[in-house]
Amino acid sequence: MPFKIGNTWYMDVSYKGKRIRKALPGVKTKREAKAIEDKYRLKLLKQELLGEIDPEPITLKQALDEYIKKHSEPHLSPKQVEREKGIVKKLLDYFGEYKQLCDITQKDIEDYLFQQLQTVKPATANRELAFLKSFFRKCEEWDYIVHNPARKIKKFKEPPGRLRYLSPDEMQRFLKAVGEEKPLVRAFILTGFYTGMRKSEISKLKWKDIDFENDLIIVQESKNNEKRTIKMVPQLKKILQSLPRRSEYVFYNPETKKPVYWIESAWKRILKKAGIQDFRFHDLRHNFASYLIMSGNNIRVVQSLLGHKTIQMTARYAHVSDARKQEAIEGFNQHIGEILNDSKSENRR
Questions:
Q1: Which of 24, 187, 188, 326 has the fewest CB atoms within 10 Å distance of its CB?
Q2: Count of Cβ atoms closer than 10 Å to residue 138 Cβ
Q3: Phi/psi of residue 4, each to 5°?
Q4: Could you count the other beta carbons within 10 Å of the beta carbon of residue 185?
Q5: Residue 6: what pLDDT?
Q6: How far apart are CA 173 and CA 240, in angstroms?
Q7: CA Rg, the chain, in Å?
């Protein structure tokens, strides 16, 4: 019978006069320990009586480790791999290292995700679900399982994403306040303003990634691990050309020559000067996309400039264009109303 020492369960099997004891790290209940013990005992009997040697059943931990090594690390950015390793840790904390991969059911996964929803947002739970779908699909391809238990699980409904952009009046005040900052700070912020690049992409920008001859910025390390190019406007080109080149990085710490990752105090100072509230650095990306759409640009073009993997990610900005259409219709109606009123006045005369 299984027994427990401290927080660890052990299996205890007697076979042919020998006593076999093994620690079962990750096993949380006596019932789980007993199930593992029974399977081990059955395996020994099959081997003795029938000469059958069952292939060692793969555990969740073994499969996850192999997935990260053979699938995630070769195809994803280091940041994405770290994010997936974080999900792996949570899965092993919940299921235990000795959980057999083939024993995990759709309900097990749904129970896990429901527990996650108590502490994380639906968007985070959906990212974990996407990981699980991919993981079990790969396990199915490797013949570790017969079917993918996560295949039929539906995504959770997410609230509308944040979409904050500057009004024309706010934009004037913002640019005036940015213009009063030191050259490096000013250039960092205006790079985000004129390109829609992510903060991390700006921080990692190197001089070799800027093609001044063709007015291009090449984003080498994006969130999606894909390269993209962005056209530089003349204003930004002039600003970047004026910066000193004392490091391989465009935006660097003068002491370490390493990338500057954030200038939070300067950002707060700028917003205070400009009298702008509830505006984050990442909102410069929303601002860039929103005004591109309002200027009549094709949504596919905007998708490419932002580096979105799917068109659905860019579609959130479509309603900005709809708002412009509504304004145009209202303006049209107002203009027609004025014409009709003028016509009535003329008839009365």
A1: 326
A2: 17
A3: -125, 135
A4: 19
A5: 86
A6: 22
A7: 29
C-alpha pair distances (Å), 265 with each of 243, 268, 302 = 21, 5, 31
The pair of three-digit structure tokens given for residue 332, joined into one six-digit string: 């049209």
Which of the four pLDDT bands, split at 50, 70 and 90, describes residue 54? very low
Classify residue 51 by burial, with Cβ atoms within 10 Å: 0-12, 13-18, 19+: exposed
Question: Is 196 part of a structural domain of the chain?
Answer: yes
Residues contacting 60, CB < 8 A, separation 6+: 91, 92, 95, 96, 97, 99, 100, 101, 104
Q: DSSP code of 30?
A: H
Domain boundary among 281, 304, 332: 281
Distances 164 to 67, 167, 290 between C-alpha atoms, Å: 38, 10, 9
Q: Which of 259, 323, 250, 320 is nearest to 291 (CA)?
A: 320
pTM, entire model? 0.56
Domain boundary among 258, 281, 304: 281
Phi, psi torsion values for 259, nearest 5 degrees: -60, 145
Is the dihedral angle over the CA atoms 152, 153, 155, 156 positive or is it negative? positive
Task: Confirm if 13 and 37 have CB atoms less than 8 A apart.
Answer: yes
| Residue 345 resides in a domain | no
Report pLDDT digits (tens) over 190-246: 999 988 888 888 988 999 999 999 888 888 876 666 778 888 888 889 999 999 898
Q: Quick one: CA dihedral 85, 89, 92, 95, positive or negative?
A: negative
Strand ranges, E, within the chain: 3-5, 8-15, 18-24, 210-211, 216-219, 228-231
Same domain, 45 and 65: no
At 98, which amino acid appears? Y
CA angle at 249 for the pair 248 and 253, rounded to the nearest 5°? 115
